[in-house]
Amino acid sequence: MFENEDQAQSVLDLIMGHYNDIPQHLDRGRYRPVYDVDLDDSFLWETWVEGFWRATRLRPEAWLPCAEEEDEDLQRALFVLGRLGESASHPDGFQPMEIDAELESLAPDLIPDAVETLHRARLARAGASAGPASWNRPKIG
């Protein structure tokens, strides 16, 4: 897969750099997901949203509080991601609603807003009003 160990390390460094940048972009309201791009330069958001929902299934207990909250923005974000997920993963058995065509056309722009809303809700639930945690804090004890 890789030509040598240096190439493998370079790729790993790029991946980890992106991984570490995501919380900072979320905190600043500047999150932009990485989408596949089709031959006509359109964004293939379907791959991203399928990956998102697969990830949520890894820890469903962490997502249950979101469904129970009364925050309208949070519920809207979950609705948008849910409809897009259904559309992307079950196109044949999908029961379309009037709004689905518009959601799909706006998906590349709606997804970042929905993710930022989920991030803010998670911070609020965690009581993290003081800002993001620093991984570079000295260990105590």
Number of domains: 2
Major sheet summary line: 2 strands, antiparallel
Structural class: mainly alpha
Count of DSSP H/I helices: 5
Strand order of the largest sheet: 1-2
Low-confidence stretches: 134-139
Tertiary shape: globular
Helix content: 55-70%
- How much of the sequence lies in strands comes to under 5%
Distance between the termini: 43 Å
Rounded to the nearest angstrom, the radius of gyration is: 18 Å
Overall pLDDT score: 87
Q: How many strand segments?
A: 2
Order of helices and strands: HEEHHHH
Task: Describe the overall structure.
The protein is 63% helix and 3% strand. The longest helix is centred in the last third of the chain and has 27 residues. Helix 2 crosses helix 4. The protein is mostly helical and 141 residues long. It has two domains: 30 residues; 92 residues, no CATH class. It contains five helices and two strands.
